[in-house]
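Try this one yourself first.
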C-alpha cells in the first residue's frame, strides 16, 4: 500500500493527540518505517538531484512536531547531544548513520563537565528507524551523500538541550 507524506502527517497528528508518550511515538516510528520504503515518497523528497542540507517538509501548527529531510554534502559528526524534553526519530533513506549512545559516568556534581561511557554503537541502515528520547545522550556520524528523514516532537532549535565536547568533556549547553 502506498503511503504519502500527507497521510503520514495526518496519522502522526491523530496518534499523538491520543498518546503523546512513548506508546504514541512508537506508533509514529512504525509509520516512518513504512514511509521511507514508499517509492513515490523517495522519488519526491530524496531523489538523486535533491538539494543538500536540511529541508522542512512539514511543521504541525497545532502539536508542534516537525518533519525534516536531510542530504549530507559532507561527512559529518555531531557532538554528543540530547533532545531536551522532546524526542527524535531518524529514518534512514540512503547510506547509513552510525549512532553511538552514551551514559554519563560522572556523578553530575560539576555543572560544566560530563564524563561519558559508550552504551551502544550501531548503524542505521536504509529502512531502519532509530528513536532518541529526551535526555538520552547520543552522537551521529553521517557519510557524504547520506539521506535521512527526521521527525521531532517539537522544533529542537527552540528548546534547551545539552551538547558535550567529547575531547574536553565540557558541557556546551
Ligand atoms: Fe539527535
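Now uncover the answer:
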Amino acid at each position: 500500500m502506498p503511503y504519502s507524506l500527507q497521510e503520514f502527517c495526518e496519522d502522526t497528528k491523530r496518534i499523538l493527540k491520543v498518546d503523546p508518550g512513548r506508546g504514541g511515538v512508537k506508533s509514529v516510528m512504525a509509520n516512518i518505517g513504512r514511509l521511507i520504503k514508499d517509492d513515490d515518497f523517495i522519488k519526491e523528497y530524496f531523489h538523486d538531484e535533491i538539494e543538500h542540507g536540511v529541508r522542512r517538509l512539514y511543521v504541525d501548527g497545532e502539536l508542534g512536531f516537525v518533519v525534516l529531510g536531510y542530504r549530507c554534502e559532507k561527512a559529518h559528526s555531531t557532538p554528543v547531544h540530547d533532545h531536551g524534553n522532546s524526542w527524535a526519530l531518524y529514518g534512514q533513506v540512503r547510506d547509513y548513520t552510525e549512532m553511538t549512545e552514551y551514559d554519563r559516568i560522572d556523578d553530575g556534581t560539576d555543572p560544566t563537565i560530563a564524563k561519558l561511557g559508550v552504551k551502544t554503537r550501531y548503524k542505521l541502515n536504509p529502512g531502519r528507524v532509530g528513536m532518541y528520547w529526551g535526555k538520552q545522550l547520543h552522537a551521529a556520524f553521517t557519510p557524504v551523500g547520506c539521506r535521512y528523514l527526521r521527525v521531532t516532537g517539537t522544533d529542537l532549535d527552540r528548546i534547551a538541550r545539552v551538547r558535550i565536547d567529547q575531547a574536553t568533556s565540557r558541557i556546551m549547553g
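Discussion: The longest strand covers residues 116-124. The radius of gyration is 16 Å.
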